[in-house]
Design goal:
single chain, mainly alpha
Length: 236
């Protein structure tokens, strides 16, 4: 690839990364403003429940995450884990998978009150929303775990390990509280905290990628495979 074409491609990716990070940051602001406007403790998904005044804002926030996250993932598609178990696909693919689940969650919101899809409160709508929301968080945590062992990104790797563990622990605890119908208010705050950390990580991930693109540094993780020496150059 010529230098001109590579420079133009990197400029497009840099612009996409900046736009993507702004969209994700805007989504986080919308979620927080909508949550504060509710004047009560409720899970993030409840912001989009049928009949809630924040329903449209919730859908908009998720769509911003889908678009922004996809742009960021594309620019960071060269980042890869060094562990065989985590190298099956890149963190970018995990982010795209998570964005896909968030898109479904934005279109299939929970019913009023976001009841657990069990027993008398069961609805297919709530079941679908609950499943895709959990899978979206799981995909995000997997992307963080993959990035935790990425080549050539030591600071980002350390941050990703910390945030990945934090999101998994906090979101998991909030989910258990919801299933147990125990301390729902505290559980909703845990979920909001996990959402904030996850989206904050995505913005920082984008910032690292954008900085490398802006300075001309390589974004892709260096290969851990030994270089192949052409036969003609091998010592006799």
């Amino acid at each position: 690839m010529s230098l001109h074409r590579r420079t133009r491609r990197e400029a497009v990716e840099l612009a996409g990364t900046i736009v993507g990070s702004c969209l994700v940051a805007a989504a986080l602001v919308i979620i927080w403003v909508a949550r504060q406007s509710a004047h009560r403790d409720l899970y993030v998904s409840e912001l989009g429940a049928r009949g809630e005044p924040t329903a449209h804002w919730f859908q908009s926030a998720l769509l911003l995450i889908v678009i922004g996250g996809s742009l960021i993932a594309y620019a960071g598609r060269g980042i890869r884990s060094r562990l065989p178990l985590l190298r099956a696909w890149t963190p970018a693919v995990s982010l795209w998978i998570g964005c896909g689940f968030f898109f479904v969650a934005s279109q299939v919101t929970c019913t009023e009150g976001c009841p657990l899809p069990v027993g008398d409160t069961f609805t297919w709508q709530d079941l679908i929303h609950t499943i895709v929301a959990v899978l979206a968080f799981a995909a995000a945590c997997w992307a963080m775990l993959q990035t935790s062992f990425a080549h050539g990104h030591r600071a980002l790797a350390l941050l990703s390990l910390t945030t990945g563990l934090a999101v998994a622990l906090i979101a998991g605890t909030g989910g258990i509280f919801s299933l147990a119908r125990f301390e729902a208010g505290f559980g909703s705050r845990l979920e909001l905290a996990a959402t904030t950390i996850a989206l904050g990580w995505l913005v920082i991930f984008a910032a690292v990628v954008a900085r490398r693109l802006a300075t001309g540094a390589a974004v892709a993780s260096p290969s851990d495979e030994p270089a192949v020496v052409p036969a003609a150059l091998e010592p006799v």
